[in-house]
Amino acid sequence: MKTLKEFNYLTPQTVAEAVSLLAKYKGEATLIAGGTDLLVMMKERTITPKYVITMKPISALSHLEWDEKEGLTIGALAKVSTILSSDVIKEKYPSLYEAAGAFGTTQVRNMATIGGKICRSSPSADLVPPLLTFDAEVELVGAKGARVMPLENFFLGPGENVLDGEILTKIKVPPPKNRYGTAFQKLGRSSEDLAKANCAVRIVVTDGKCEDIRIALGAVAPTPIRAKKAEQALKGKEINPNAIDEAAAKVAEDIAPITDVRSNVEYRTYISQILVRRLINEAIKRLGGS
Amino acid sequence: MANNKSIININVNGIMHTIDVENNWTLLKVLRDEMGLTGTKCGCDKGQCGACTVLMNGKPILSCLTLAVAANEQEITTIEGLAVGGNLHPLQESFIEHHALQCGFCTPGMIMSAKALLDENPRPSEEEIKYSLRGNLCRCGSYPKVVKAIQDTAKKMEARE
Amino acid sequence: MSGELKVIGKPFPLRDAKEKVEGSAKYSADIQLENMLHAKILGSPYPHAKIKKIDVSQAQKIKGVVEILTHENTAGITYTSVEHKPMSVLEQQVRYVGGPVAVVAAETEEIADKALEAIQVEYEELPAVFDPVEAAKPDAPKLYPEGNIADAVPGEPLCEKWGDVDKAFKEADIVVEGTFKTPIQPVTPLEPRASVASWDGKVLSAWVSTQFPHRVKEDLAGVLGLPFSKIRVISHFIGGGFGGKKQEEYPLMAALLSVRTNRPVKLEYSREEETIVGRRRYSSVEKIKLAAKKDGTITAINFETYYDVGAHGNFVGGSLGLLVSEFYVYKFENAIFKVYDVNTNLPTAQPFRGVQFPAYLFGLEQLVDQVAEKLGIDPAEIRLKNTYRTGDKMYPYGATLGNFPVEELIEKGVKASGFRNSWTGWGKPVKVEGSKRRGIGMVFTMGWGGDWMKQCSTATVKIYPDATAELITGAQDIGTGCNTTLPQIVAEELGLPLDKVKLTAGDTGLTPDDWGACGSRTLRSAGTAAHEAAKKVKAVLINTACLRLNATRKDVECKDGVLYVKGKKVQLSEVIKEPVSAAHKNAELETVAPLFDAHYMGGATFHVAEVEVDIETGEITVLRYTAVEDVGRAIDPLIVEGQMYGGALQGLGYSLREELLFDQKSGKPLNPNFLDYKIYDFQDAPNIQLIIVESNEPTGPFGAMGVGEHCINPVAGAVANAVYNAIGTRLYEIPMSPERVLKALGKI
Q1: Is any Cβ of chain A less than 8 angstroms from the Cβ of C739?
Q2: What is the CATH number that goes with domain A8-54?
Q3: Per-residue pLDDT tens for C698-713?
């Protein structure tokens, strides 16, 4: 572990100011939110920015808003602890709430921001799979203005995303259109760990049939992914153990896990199916179905 | 040319300080090296062990992952700030009584996390204590006695009110 | 000692708890001296290389860089610890990734880091080897000219045998065998080790995170060419050691820098350095075979094992401990122990709590269970059949076993764990619930307890005219609580309340020698010295009273800290105007402990593990863990409980989740941090039921034995046995990660 190298600390008061600073010091600047990832990388000297731009003064970015029509708008600087203490999220987006609880430690949750975690673009990010199952979108603001895109398209690879001199400002989650059941689970070597594999499921069941389903996984591909082959295998079908097993087996075609210090390909491949099967069942149970 | 310097105003344990800092200093370094408050420990410097836990505006955070400049205008409480007028905080007394420590290195961080927990949740269950403090690692194995110390403190503090 | 004990056995809080909870306790890294420099180490990027050229000129030009050490300007400066090969402070041949190449002292840490980047080193890479079995082969890359087998006779394994093993196996009714693998487990204390060295022209004061302050004092004296009287090692607060913080290079580097710069120097390890350069348990590959008869007698053991002792380890730091412990766990009439302590291009290994016991019992106890299964008897029965009893003469040296209350421990443990209710038979789960299988397993064993451990402890006890006392001891508290229990012993002997006994410890400038904190020896050894010194000073006091007051010995009694002369109470201040003192030294310091002693303290230990294995995810949860241990006498039961729990938890980590991994090509450590090396946290740490048994060991102070290691020894074996009973398949490698469980079940 090394000391941090020297840098200029900049405190823009608006998003526009932050964007222009990013452009001005392109290649030498980085944004800091909670710092829980960034400072570790800077101490490991993986990145050594000459300019560190803090978003903290822009307080509007740390708010969480709920509206029946607009749904949930989470400011990029909202802390994970804020998500964990939100009744709205607990009630309407339970898997996101659970993921926030499974993530990190009390201290880290008090510091890390949802925007920071998304921009870190780790394949194993815990908050992302639930957001993917809710069709979340992100707002990016750059020199050319703002654009909104599905969260699913934000990630490009481990630690890589589409940001081009832009700042992630909001995460938008549509309001629930119908009753759904959700489930989330994270597997690690200990209760507090980077995920070996994590999974979120959201399911809508009508007359014993799967009307709609979203399955998202993390830590089993270069980015968090939607398991679309598995989803398609169950969508529209009658809910029964066989159908669920078949859908879970399909997830092997959606993922591309690796062997690393935390786990291996064989385990991740095998456990993804177990997770998907278990979580589909759990989500259905929470709907009140069987 | 990077301008690596800033001036910060921070309230540490109830006292305002104006300090010249380097931007690349962490709050942990300022507390320990600049202010001589060595009660807060460096166990890993990467936010993974909790030994550096202090309270910022009452919430437990990792001072090793907080830039000193980010602590500007904030209220910091360290272990040294718990005892009032020479009297130990009930948590500190409880830790002593219940033998909730062995080598003691993780203890300051643990006590700060415990204080924040009790401030927010005056009667935490065993599960809540364990969940809340899972970011404070201990190698000596003080966990069960820490849980007991915290539960006992909760009872005592409730009785006082 | 008749009558009720007044201080012994009471749950006193730690003597130094107040400083620890206040944050005023100064650990080595907390020491801040004026004009202090900061030192950092440049580590080798290669697992095995010769430094051909090292150029520090660019680094020296950096403003604020004050002094740089390399092998060139420290040539010939060596130091010796019994637990590793002789080492130079900086070696020209680096033997592991991270091995020290240069040390920089600078005005700030930031400048020191800058300097490290500017040092230019030309390495000649040498072939490297990481596996102990490979490294033991004659054609393996050599770390030393004498080869890689670091046993007493270079190139030869440590070999001990008795009886006729071949005959026993020929005549056996049952033979079981297995090859067991155990990982590298770094000690991982929360405190990364650190040293502050301060040379004032006359005396070198060194604050060091060490279990061995008096040995470090000797190392410093040797390295600096100074007499002992000019070295002072201060170690009031150590943040955990567990065997891994003894004698090493970093305090010597800090001291050399201080002497060369005439300024105080602080050298603090990062967490990565603490994991890599700080010492660790050796990994092992154990081939074990047991022979047994139909009547349940285990007649022979064949134990052939490779230990990886790392770059600078040796057999003393390696398998030597076998000779004083593992031989005694069962009545093996016939045995062969063949052990290779092998150097590899990995960080140096050193005894970590329990030393070889945890690995040994992981293998041995599973085989013992297999014998029992083949015979159709239960696990308690086989152990009752083959374990020694109190007073037995033990193979192979004929040592007499002290108190060893086997039946009592097994009875208590079986009852407390609900074993009889849970046991459904071999390889049969206690309960099946969906994909979850519950299993229960046990291990009965012993701790460390040879007489050799009482060597070299010295204590002085003083009595003051105001009826207070002082204990001056060289013993080192590393969180183990002897700062509390040693004064308890003195207080009890003198009949004083505990708060009337002052303690002077943690400073070699003020205290007599003590070998150091290791091998569960401190309470037994330093406790004996303290106890004897207290008895002596009491006698001195009584003699003085006789002289002053013209009384005879039988007229004078010292009871509860009060003097009675002919039945009349006399103030101490009437008898003595100055403190009286007496010292006691157990035995002379020896470089290597005498092993073949007449008496062995058992430290009987019995653990029962109940686990739940999810056969879909491979996850093992410890549902219930029962630890019953004979501690002789619990001087302070809270401290004993802390040790029992802490050791068991480290054992569970060893069994289920801890392993330090290295890239097999580059030798780079892959997880030297808390992120990827997972010790137990609050949420995962299982509850453990602790039962203390007190057999009153006659050779211990007030019957006490050291307890630091009993608690970790049986854990891996108990958990492995429980897992087998849960899932019907044995695991031969720890940690028993979900990946390994599923592989054993054939699912991946």
Answers
A1: yes
A2: 3.30.43.10
A3: 888 999 998 899 999 9
Do C364 and C464 share a domain, yes or no? Answer: no
For the stretch C161-175, pLDDT in tens is 999 999 999 999 999
Domain boundaries along the sequence of chain A: 8-54, 59-173, 181-287
Give the residue carrying structure tokens 């809080």.
C13
User: How would CATH label the architecture of A181-287?
Assistant: 2-Layer Sandwich (3.30)
Contact B65 A35 (CB under 8 A): yes
Choose the CATH number for A59-173 among 3.30.465.10, 3.20.20.370, 3.40.120.10, 3.40.50.300.
3.30.465.10
CB C245 within 8 A of CB C196: no
ipTM of the assembly? 0.98
Distance CA A61, CA A115 (A): 9
Q: Name the residue facing B70 among A54, A104, A110 (closest C-beta).
A: A54
- Choose among C119, C92, C98, C91: nearest CA to C44: C98
Question: Which conformational region is residue C238 in: left (phi greater than 0), alpha (psi within -120 to 50 degrees), or beta?
Answer: beta
Closest CA to A50 of B68, B2, B6: B2
**Distances, alpha carbon C701 to alpha carbons C390, C392, C544, C560, in Å:** 19, 22, 26, 19
Burial letters C682-709, b for 16+ CB under 10 A, else e: bbbbbebebbbbbbebebbbbbbbbbbb
Nearest neighbour of C20 by CB, restricted to B44, B104, B131: B104
User: pLDDT per residue over C591-623, tens digit each?
Assistant: 445 566 678 888 999 999 999 999 999 999 999
B87 CB burial (10 A radius; 0-12, 13-18, 19+): exposed
pLDDT at position C558 is 83
Task: Give the residue numbers spanning the domain of C55.
Answer: 31-126+190-240+245-276
User: CB distance A267–C657 less than 8 Å?
Assistant: no
**pLDDT tens-place values along chain A, 290 residues long:** 679 999 999 999 999 999 999 999 999 999 999 999 999 999 999 999 999 999 888 989 999 999 999 999 999 999 999 999 999 999 999 999 999 999 999 999 999 999 999 999 999 999 999 999 999 999 999 999 999 999 999 999 999 999 999 999 999 999 999 999 999 999 999 988 999 999 999 999 999 999 999 999 999 999 999 999 999 999 999 999 999 999 999 999 999 999 999 999 999 999 999 999 999 999 999 997 54
Q: Look at A3 and C680 and tell me if their CB atoms are within 8 Å.
A: no
- Phi and psi at residue C644, in whole multiples of 5°? -60, -45
Closest by CA position to B138, among listed B113, B112, B103, B114? B103
pLDDT in tens, C635-665: 999 999 999 999 999 999 999 999 999 999 9
Phi-psi region of A55 (alpha: psi -120 to 50; beta: other; left: phi over 0): alpha
Domains in chain B with CATH codes: 5-81 (3.10.20.30), 90-160 (1.10.150.120)
- Same-domain check for residues C120 and C231: yes
Q: What is the number of structural domains in chain C?
A: 3
Contact C30 B32 (CB under 8 A): yes
pLDDT at B1: 44
C3 vs C171, higher pLDDT: C171
Specify the CATH number for the domain of residue C201: 3.90.1170.50
On whether the CB atoms of residues A258 and A229 are closer than 8 A, the answer is no
Task: Find where tokens 């925007």 sit.
Answer: A115
pLDDT digits 0-9 by tens, C28-49: 999 999 999 999 999 999 999 9
In order of A165, A166, C311, C704, the CA distances from A144 in angstroms are 10, 9, 58, 77
Rounded alpha-carbon distances, angstroms, from residue C89 to C13, C250, C252, C328, C612? 40, 8, 7, 38, 49
Closest-CA residue of C relative to A40 is C675
Residue showing tokens 């049969």: C428
Q: Which of C109, C270, C657 sits opposite A189 (nearest CB)?
A: C657
